[in-house]
Predict the structure.
Amino acid sequence: TNNLQAANQYGFTVNKTSEEAIVEFIDEIEITKSTKQHALVISLDIKGRQVALNTSQGPATLPQHRGCPQGSCTGPAFWNLVANEVLTESWPEGVHLQADDFIFLIKAPKKAKVKSLANEAQN
């Protein structure tokens, strides 16, 4: 699955660590500060997951209680496909997204633009 991974994917990735994700994110924040832009961080941690299955008796959903790295009880290949789809979206300029879990850095010269970009990124 490495050929399918976005450059800003750190979970389940060969030769990439959570520490590298943190360093890259701090670098992005430093660039934002040095260019005197406003910034907002949004960190997404998926909770309240459910497993949905089609069974011979019809659709069934079960709560997902087991803790799993990056939310993937199905394994790294599936998580990387899901994460890659989100990471390779066409994000507006000023929106930086990376994943171990998902974290956005929204930056712009004006606070109103940061708010607008944050709303757009979450939709």
About this structure: The longest strand covers residues 38-44. Residues 18-121 form one domain. Residues 18-34 form the longest helix (17 residues). The mean pLDDT is 76.
